[in-house]
Design a protein that fits this description.
308 residues, two-stranded antiparallel sheet, flat, transmembrane
Length: 308
């Protein structure tokens, strides 16, 4: 069991270098925030378009199949399951829907006129194609509201998870923190410790693989001991896993202490005095093109994606 391969979410893909890797981290961060915020108060057509855009970006970037198949595949299955469950669930209206027009045509017929003039009878407007209940077979009922809720929730789940994962997949942790620090520079005027925040974020991103490695080692150590879980019972099983969790916490605290000691020995006593520049942030022509496309993106969102 290899957690570093079975749980690839949030890991950086160092090779091959796609065109998404070469974009400036600040531009990619603004694109990520646009994906995460543009679906708010948007119609379902726009939310479906966001899902299609993410899939198209992945295919155009030529990310290896072995990478995005594990990530996008399970996420698509999850989104489809959410769509199916919500669409057949009650819509929450609790209303018995009746036809808009009465069943008897005599009610609609006008009273006999005493005037001798012949008046032309205008037909009442009807819309026979509209149906609130789209599908009803046995206990399965799909209404327009439940279908709208299913589309909204499933696309939001896919957009939130996959857009963040695609950003982490194509952006190194050092680039992420450098981009965030660059965008947060105006906050220094408010005496906010921007450098300390970005340094903490860098260490936390670097700590994720260490957490997965410790979990992997502990799970392997439990599996190699061939514990008979049936004899232990529920109480004994819980006790074993509590011991494992305690050992995991001890190992993580030990790793954190080792990192802190290593930084202290190397003179990292103050982030303002010991800054390390991993990347030179500079906007290139592809970055300006991405910014121009982003402006078109928000123009389409305002023009066609607003909630009616």
């Amino acid at each position: 069991m290899d957690l570093l391969r079975s749980l690839p979410l949030g890991l950086y893909l160092d090779a091959p270098q796609t065109w998404l890797h070469k974009l400036d981290s600040r531009v990619k961060l603004i694109w990520l925030l646009s994906f995460l915020t543009s679906y708010v108060f948007a119609n379902n057509y726009w939310r479906v378009l966001l899902v299609l855009l993410l899939i198209i970006f992945t295919l155009i970037a030529k990310i290896p199949l072995r990478v995005w198949r594990q990530q996008m595949g399970w996420l698509l299955v999850l989104s489809i399951m959410v769509f199916a469950i919500i669409s057949i669930s009650p819509d929450g209206m609790s209303i018995d829907y009746q036809p808009r027009l009465p069943a008897s045509e005599q009610i609609l017929s006008p009273a006999p006129s005493t005037n001798s003039e012949n008046k032309t009878k205008l037909p009442l407007p009807t819309n026979e194609k509209y149906k609130y209940i789209i599908f009803h077979q046995g206990p399965v009922k799909i209404s327009r509201r439940s279908l709208s809720l299913a589309t909204s929730l499933s696309t939001i789940v896919f957009t939130l998870i996959y857009s963040s994962n695609l950003y982490l997949l194509t952006t190194a942790p050092e680039e992420i923190t450098s981009g965030i620090e660059s965008l947060m520079q105006p906050l220094k005027k408010l005496h906010i410790p921007v450098t300390e925040i970005t340094l903490t974020l860098t260490l936390s991103l670097r700590f994720i693989p260490l957490v997965l490695e410790e979990m992997q080692n502990l799970i392997r150590s439990v599996m190699t001991r061939a514990i008979n879980w049936k004899k232990l019972g529920l109480k004994g099983g819980i006790k074993v896993w509590l011991i494992v969790m305690e050992r995991l916490l001890e190992n993580l605290l030990l790793r954190a202490e080792q990192i802190a000691n290593a930084m202290t020995v190397r003179g990292f006593t103050s982030p303002n005095e010991h800054q390390v520049k991993w990347h030179e942030l500079q906007l290139k022509p592809p970055d300006w093109l991405a910014v121009a496309v982003l402006i078109v993106f928000w123009g389409l969102r305002i023009a066609f994606g607003a909630l009616n």
